[in-house]
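B., you asked whether I could sanity-check this one before it goes into the benchmark set. Here's the sequence:
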Amino acid sequence: MPREDIYEVLFTESAAHDRDQLDPVRRASFDKAIELLARDPYTGVSRPIGVGDQDREIRLTSQIVAEYMVSRGRLLLVMLRIFDDADILLPEEG
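And here's what the prediction gave me:
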């Protein structure tokens, strides 16, 4: 059985700070998404941003978007955007 390559995950100081501010439920979902991303940083639900293919963006959960870079077996999370339903000016009506 072949060994599955898993990218080393690193964080900028800003992204680490935002990650550390997540409540326990969001953090568990975030960690699970990062684990999946480390196995396939070029997943079909991510998209390149910029000129090359290595700078990417992905919606990790319904409330967390990440920008990251892929290089030499490493995945660097550069920025996280965390959304909170309490911050909505005009909520959608169902």
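One thing to flag: The first strand starts at residue 8 and ends at 11. Otherwise nothing jumped out at me.
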